[in-house]
Amino acid sequence: MAKNTSGMVDPAIFDYLQSKIDEDTEIRDQVKTILQDLEKHGRHSQASLAKAHSTQASQYGTIVEETEISIADQINVVERLAGTASRYPYYKYNSLWSRDIQNTMFHVLLCGWLGGSLGLGNGYQGRLLTLEEVGRVLKVPINLKDRDAFHLTIEEYLHALITLIDELSRLAINAVIQADFAISLQVSKFIKDIYAGFQILNLKNDSLRRRSDSIKYSVKKVEDIVYDLSLRNLIPKET
Amino acid sequence: MTSSPSKRIRTASPSRDAGTIPAQSKPKSSPMLSASSSPYMPMFSHFRSELDAHHDRRERVIKASRDITANSKKIIFTLQRAPSLGSALPNGITTEIGGKTTTIGTLLKSIYPSDLASINVWRYHWQLSPGIQELMEAAVFQHYLLTQELLNFADAQKLVGQLVGDELVGGGLLTEEDYLLGVFDSVGEMMRWSVSHLAVSRGRGEGDEALVKDLRTLRLALEMLKTHGAGCERDVEKKMEVMQSCVDKVENTAYGLVVRGSERPKEWIPEDKFPEMHD
């Protein structure tokens, strides 16, 4: 044990650690740069989709067309992100992009609900795109379990779904302003169906749980709208 | 509270004006009733089973991690009783540590590879991390007591691999970050051991000088790491201060021995064996 005149630390240990830390920093920077693009295109989609609040349901087609253009840009960025991210452990970095991916998924969901076909064929208004369909739109796998690569998770889909419900409960109000009463009824039914689904999930005390707690307020908000409409005989006869 | 009845009256009044049937037309169907008719139930039951399986795996990893931490702490306590540096540990200590190490291996095997297969190693990394870091703390401390050297990452990985009985792949359970954070924590144990060792030897023991030097070298190496923008940045920042104050304590102890220790006759026995421990 007499060798210890030069100290206990082999410098190679820390050279190696530093190189690994630098690698990690570099990967994070790469991902963040890509996410800036995703956010930029996402803002365009958001702006197009927001027009739904001031548009008659019969005119949703123009909004959808416009949104599909910026969603196409988002799809390209997601492809770049998937290419970069798939080179590293998925769950090591997924917190970096999870929020942005949730937003992107929400744009796809809302565009689909408004009637966008998004390359899936025969879109119709009021449609809920499944996780599989959102994956197909964004051209990435979903819920991967047996291999480590970029994908969309169930949790991300549920988060996007909660955002969709929030947005639709607002649309239910704005549709009334435009005397588009049928939309409010449709939203009410849709939100209640989704809410019923959320109720069978055993959510732990995480962000998904907290956000899903807010769905019941959306349900109530839209129920109140339907109540107000029914009081005044404003509910259109079912055909 | 007093305002609520009046509110109810107010919301009820337009119904009379409108002349429609009020209450019964209000769609207040309970969500549970609509559950059966919701077209999305198959999708949600699929999500439910996926999420349940996920939470179960997560729970198991958290529990194992907690038990690994407890056993690693026990190893560390035992190691604190090591009488000297750079030589084999007494049999009693080795046996005790061996038992705990076997337990840790069993705990790791209870979740690996089953719950931590493929993509899931990183999925539950944040749950496993505390246990692995504590294990590293023990391993680095033990290696130092035995060899007076810092355990390197490759050997640390091999050690974890051996514990799960899968040297080639099992080492993947240990990340560079967890190893590094374990090294940070081990400085605290080296400090504790050094301070009590110095108090007993009163600075006249063989290798007392090396102790201070070793910790100083390690401190400098840790301080020189650049972690800005890295995933471990915040953890390293937190541990840096603690590590520095630990090395300070050993330096202060050594200082005290040089200044005051030399004045004492060789036969003088301190009344309190470990004065620095009460700081």
UniProtKB/TrEMBL annotation, chain A:
<dbReference type="GO" id="GO:0016070">
    <property type="term" value="P:RNA metabolic process"/>
</dbReference>
<dbReference type="GO" id="GO:0003697">
    <property type="term" value="F:single-stranded DNA binding"/>
</dbReference>
<comment type="similarity">
    <text>Belongs to the translin family.</text>
</comment>
<keyword id="KW-0963">Cytoplasm</keyword>
<dbReference type="InterPro" id="IPR016068">
    <property type="entry name" value="Translin_N"/>
</dbReference>
<dbReference type="GO" id="GO:0005634">
    <property type="term" value="C:nucleus"/>
</dbReference>
<dbReference type="InterPro" id="IPR033956">
    <property type="entry name" value="Translin"/>
</dbReference>
<dbReference type="InterPro" id="IPR016069">
    <property type="entry name" value="Translin_C"/>
</dbReference>
<dbReference type="InterPro" id="IPR002848">
    <property type="entry name" value="Translin_fam"/>
</dbReference>
<keyword id="KW-0539">Nucleus</keyword>
<dbReference type="GO" id="GO:0005737">
    <property type="term" value="C:cytoplasm"/>
</dbReference>
<dbReference type="InterPro" id="IPR036081">
    <property type="entry name" value="Translin_sf"/>
</dbReference>
<keyword id="KW-0694">RNA-binding</keyword>
<dbReference type="GO" id="GO:0043565">
    <property type="term" value="F:sequence-specific DNA binding"/>
</dbReference>
<keyword id="KW-0238">DNA-binding</keyword>
<protein>
    <recommendedName>
        <fullName>Translin</fullName>
    </recommendedName>
</protein>
<dbReference type="GO" id="GO:0003723">
    <property type="term" value="F:RNA binding"/>
</dbReference>
<dbReference type="Pfam" id="PF01997">
    <property type="entry name" value="Translin"/>
</dbReference>
TrEMBL record, chain B:
<feature type="compositionally biased region" description="Low complexity">
    <location>
        <begin position="25"/>
        <end position="36"/>
    </location>
</feature>
<dbReference type="GO" id="GO:0005737">
    <property type="term" value="C:cytoplasm"/>
</dbReference>
<dbReference type="GO" id="GO:0043565">
    <property type="term" value="F:sequence-specific DNA binding"/>
</dbReference>
<keyword id="KW-0963">Cytoplasm</keyword>
<keyword id="KW-0539">Nucleus</keyword>
<feature type="region of interest" description="Disordered">
    <location>
        <begin position="1"/>
        <end position="36"/>
    </location>
</feature>
<dbReference type="GO" id="GO:0005634">
    <property type="term" value="C:nucleus"/>
</dbReference>
<dbReference type="InterPro" id="IPR036081">
    <property type="entry name" value="Translin_sf"/>
</dbReference>
<protein>
    <recommendedName>
        <fullName>Translin</fullName>
    </recommendedName>
</protein>
<dbReference type="InterPro" id="IPR016068">
    <property type="entry name" value="Translin_N"/>
</dbReference>
<comment type="similarity">
    <text>Belongs to the translin family.</text>
</comment>
<dbReference type="InterPro" id="IPR016069">
    <property type="entry name" value="Translin_C"/>
</dbReference>
<dbReference type="InterPro" id="IPR002848">
    <property type="entry name" value="Translin_fam"/>
</dbReference>
<dbReference type="Pfam" id="PF01997">
    <property type="entry name" value="Translin"/>
</dbReference>
